[in-house]
Inverse folding.
């Protein structure tokens, strides 16, 4: 029970972090039809910017400065990169963000090196918030959840209650009509792109020190975020939310289980020939298979329901 | 396309074959043969990738999966040949890799080709990640970190060919490369190849004339897997080692870069891309640690300014050359190249100094040599000079760019008039 509760909380904080990334990706995708490959690179830049600024001014200003800096980069990317290649079609846009991700990773190598940087959680949050049975639950994890939930509520309010949110929602489905009503739709696109980048940057700020800040973080998180978006259904925010929590739980829980198919065969009474060539497959534990599980889930979802959990459109 | 046989086409293929035969006799340096072998492998791989992206419009981020799996299966087959448990000539090993690539193309293709466009791209990435993660779970097949090593000199020598010397390996690769090039080109002329183009351009109308786009995509992906597997097997013969890295997403990204830089709109584009990228990768990596960065920037510049790749630039200049007006563009082009060189000089200086401080300063100090000059990267002066050069180059390029554009417009208008007249 104790293990279950602690892992559940961990998976919740991780799942919320995934949603911060997948929500921006989903918004950008449904608005511009562009799958932003560099989205996880913005997450990585958020972590590195926060590390760099927190060395001079501390964690709290960095919590604001780093996402804003990432948002500025996002706006520049949209204005001078994506808008230029837009006329060449979606493949060129996708490839542009792919090349950007590639280049950002190399720039990070160049500036901060290949080893992880010592980006730590602030001392003021280094205490245990509460204890579950005998486990002390770290306050920083609670802080992560609070920031994520605050962001979630803020995003919801902005999208549904504010004027700019209305314009964004209208531009999703009827960009020409919004343009005709006198709104600057390209600027709305730039704003959404910058906002999505800022969310990814914020996720990097609070996730980089909870996990690890190294040049590989963009690739490792990026592919998981893609799985989340496909699993939840392309372009659906609600789907992305549910998928984030599910994939977060799958990833967090699976690393803790040492059961393999061999254990299963043993418990239902099947004898396995230990010299069999399949032995290596039977012996793989869930913990060892953890990195593959999200992808298997995705493939299974595609076979059963190709448009994803809550998706409305099919490729 | 009613002309099945044309002398011109035969001439092009004969010239290609001649270049492939003569190349190792011209470039005789030690590393040249090895590089030529890698180019041959890269050509097959990039062309097979273009069957998806260029011909069927499927952007795949996981094509190295078929290359890598083909390579692993042929590495195990080669080891079995060496152990005497499997009788098969080494020169036909690529067929085993090809069949392995085909089988996995059929399996993964069944799942992925139900989609097209962006969802297909993401799913191909997911499949690639899945296979890469699996490769660490099954060390007896994938060899863990060290990979599977093998020995290509096995069995009886046929007519004195043992595949010991690298020149013999080059000619084996060249022969396979030539056969695959012809096969893939012939495929573009078949009804399937034509329907692939139709599915790329307008799947709805392709369905309207009675073809199932999913089926066309599935067939093209399976066949592309076959050719990628052949390339993988040749890689095993060439290096006698295959690691799980070769089926990862970095390798998939690499083949995408090759095809795109060469030009996905033309059959010969990926060939140019494979040769150029392989050359740049081995040449640049000898000189600088930052070559991946330069490479990424090069790719971004290509997408922004020449999304059709090098092949499309060649096509664009065809009417200009035919009407003998290339001379009018010479001056603007030279000026643009000169200002681009200034820009690059500044950029390279900044990047190299940063890299030096980041990676080498602790061991050898901050003094470094750059473009044949000694400088201290810890002082401000070289940074300021490099920044000024960079900004000056950028300004110059922006200025010259206008002239290039207007000269280009004049020339194309004149070329069209000359043609029309």
């Amino acid at each position: 029970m104790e293990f279950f509760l602690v892992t559940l909380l961990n998976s919740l904080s991780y799942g919320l972090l995934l949603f911060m990334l997948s929500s921006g990706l989903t918004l950008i995708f449904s608005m511009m039809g562009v799958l932003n490959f560099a989205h996880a690179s913005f997450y990585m830049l958020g972590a590195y910017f926060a590390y760099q600024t927190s060395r001079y001014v501390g964690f709290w200003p960095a919590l604001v400065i780093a996402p804003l800096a990432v948002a500025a980069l996002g706006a520049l990317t949209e204005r001078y990169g994506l808008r230029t290649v837009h006329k060449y079609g979606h493949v060129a846009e996708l490839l542009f963000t792919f090349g950007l991700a590639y280049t950002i990773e190399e720039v990070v190598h160049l500036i901060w090196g290949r080893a992880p940087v010592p980006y730590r959680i602030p001392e003021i949050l280094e205490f245990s918030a509460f204890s579950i049975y005998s486990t002390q639950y770290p306050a920083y994890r609670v802080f992560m959840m609070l920031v994520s939930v605050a962001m979630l509520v803020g995003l919801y309010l902005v999208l549904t209650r504010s004027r700019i949110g209305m314009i964004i929602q209208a531009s999703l489905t009827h960009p020409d009509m919004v343009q005709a009503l006198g709104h600057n739709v390209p600027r709305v696109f730039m704003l959404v792109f910058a906002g999505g980048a800022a969310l990814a940057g914020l996720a990097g700020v609070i996730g980089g020190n909870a996990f690890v800040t190294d040049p590989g973080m963009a690739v490792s998180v990026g592919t998981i975020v893609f799985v989340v978006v496909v699993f939840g259904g392309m372009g659906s925010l609600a789907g992305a939310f549910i998928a984030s929590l599910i994939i977060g739980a799958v990833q967090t829980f699976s690393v803790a289980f040492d059961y393999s198919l061999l254990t299963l065969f043993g418990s239902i009474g099947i004898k396995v020939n230990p010299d069999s060539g399949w032995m290596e497959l039977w012996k793989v534990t869930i913990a060892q298979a953890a990195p593959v599980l999200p992808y298997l889930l995705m493939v299974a979802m595609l076979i059963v329901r190709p448009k994803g959990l809550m998706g409305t459109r099919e490729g | 396309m009613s002309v099945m046989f044309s002398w011109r086409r035969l001439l092009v293929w004969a010239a290609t074959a001649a270049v492939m035969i003569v190349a190792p006799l011209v470039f005789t340096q030690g590393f040249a043969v090895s590089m030529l072998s890698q180019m041959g492998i890269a050509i097959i791989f990039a062309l097979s990738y273009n069957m998806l992206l260029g011909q069927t419009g499927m952007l795949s981020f996981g094509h190295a999966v078929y290359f890598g799996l083909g390579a692993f299966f042929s590495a195990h087959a080669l080891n079995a040949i060496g152990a005497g448990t499997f009788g098969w000539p080494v020169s036909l090993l690529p067929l085993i890799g090809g069949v392995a690539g085909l089988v996995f193309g059929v399996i993964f293709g069944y799942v992925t080709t139900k989609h097209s466009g962006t969802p297909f791209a993401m799913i191909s990435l997911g499949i690639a990640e899945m296979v890469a993660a699996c490769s660490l779970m099954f060390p007896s097949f994938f060899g863990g970190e060290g990979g599977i090593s093998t020995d290509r000199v096995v069995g009886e020598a046929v007519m004195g060919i043992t595949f010991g010397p690298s020149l013999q390996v080059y000619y084996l690769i060249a022969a396979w490369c030539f056969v695959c090039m012809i096969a893939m080109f012939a495929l573009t002329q078949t009804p399937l190849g034509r329907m692939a183009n139709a599915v790329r351009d307008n799947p709805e109308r392709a369905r309207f004339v009675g073809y199932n786009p999913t089926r066309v995509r599935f067939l093209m992906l399976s066949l592309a897997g076959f050719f990628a597997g052949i390339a993988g097997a040749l890689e095993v013969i060439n290096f006698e080692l295959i690691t799980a890295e070769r089926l990862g997403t970095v390798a998939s990204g690499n083949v995408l870069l090759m095809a795109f830089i060469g030009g996905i709109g033309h059959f010969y584009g990926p060939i140019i891309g494979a040769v150029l990228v392989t050359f740049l990768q081995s040449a640049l990596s000898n000189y600088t640690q930052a070559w991946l960065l330069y490479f990424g920037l090069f790719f971004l510049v290509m997408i922004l300014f020449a999304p059709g790749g090098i092949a499309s630039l060649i096509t664009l200049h065809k009417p200009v050359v035919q009407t003998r007006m290339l001379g009018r563009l010479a001056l603007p082009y030279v000026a643009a190249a000169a200002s681009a060189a200034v820009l690059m000089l500044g950029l390279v200086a900044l990047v190299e100094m940063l890299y030096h401080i980041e990676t080498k300063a602790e061991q050898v100090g901050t003094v470094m040599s750059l473009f044949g000059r000694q400088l201290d990267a810890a002082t401000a002066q070289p940074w300021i000079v490099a920044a000024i050069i960079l900004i000056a180059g950028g300004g110059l390029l922006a200025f010259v760019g206008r002239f290039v554009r207007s000269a280009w417009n004049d020339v194309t208008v004149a070329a069209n008039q000359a043609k029309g007249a």
